[in-house]
Amino acid sequence: MATRTDALTRREQILKEAARLFAERGFHGVGVDEIGAAVGISGPGLYRHFAGKDAMLAELLVGISGRLLTGGKRRLAESDGGDPEALLDSLIEGHIDFALDDRPLITLHDRELDRLRDSDRKLVRQLQRQYVELWVEAVREVYPDLAEQPARAAVHAVFGLLNSTPHLGRSGGLPGREATAGLLHRMARGAFAAA
User: Fold this and answer.
1) Which residues of the chain have pLDDT under 50?
2) What is the pTM of this model?
3) What is residue 56's three-state secondary structure?
4) Rounded distance, CA 153 to CA 159, Å?
5) Distance separating alpha carbons of residues 156 and 152, to the nearest angstrom
6) CA distance 104 to 181
């Protein structure tokens, strides 16, 4: 008998494979049968977990925006008003983890966000704005002379830098996760310092 944990694990597998396939071939280039085959179930078997491809796409894009915001809030709470430099480094590290570990979601967001229902797209944007504001506050703590608008522009620019990882080639073509993470971190801090 399947437990709730098993169902969540299967659901996560489906989402991971859907993200990979959608990123590789586009939302309309992938059928439910292919997603099912990637996780070892029939295409129609996916409907036990999701209403359809649109629901998978929404859960992927709303989900990652929510996870980034939750992670940012957790890092802020863990800093507990401590060292602003450490908080900014922690935010950068968290986003680098996302950028290196969830590269298909970045591609998916860039290509398929407009395919979401209006309500889901608005929710993604709302979560993203809140995430940006966490960063703006952290950046302004480290660089108090930086006005709000330039700080916001710098945050968006750093996101562009960090979210460029899908364009770095296949994972095997990168210099290694640790070296890539270090490079991205130094570049992000350099971008903020230059602002």
Assistant:
1) 1-5, 7-8
2) 0.89
3) helix
4) 10
5) 6
6) 17
Residue 124: count other Cβ atoms within 10 Å of its Cβ: 20
Token readout for 178 is 């640790």
Q: Which pair of tokens denotes residue 41? A: 């179930």
* Residue 50 to residue 75: CA distance in whole angstroms: 31
The model's pLDDT over 3-46, given as tens digits with 9 standing for 90+, comes to 444 544 788 999 999 999 999 999 999 999 999 999 999 888 88
What is the dihedral sign for C-alpha 22, 24, 30, 32? negative
**CA dist list (Å): 63 to 1, 69, 72, 109, 127:** 28, 10, 14, 11, 10
User: What's the pLDDT score for residue 21?
Assistant: 96
Residue 20 corresponds to which tokens in the numbers above? Answer: 């990979």
Question: How many Å apart are CA 80 and CA 150, to the nearest integer?
Answer: 25
What's the CA angle centered on 111, arms 185 and 42, to 5 degrees?
A: 105
CA-CA distances (angstroms) from residue 75 to 4, 94, 103, 138?
Answer: 29, 9, 22, 11
Number of CB atoms found within 10 A of residue 27's CB: 17
Q: What angle do CA 129, 134, 138 make, to 5 degrees?
A: 140
* Cβ contact 114:163 at 8 Å: no
Q: What is the 3-state secondary structure (H, E, C) of 116-138?
A: CCHHHHHHHHHHHHHHHHHHHHH
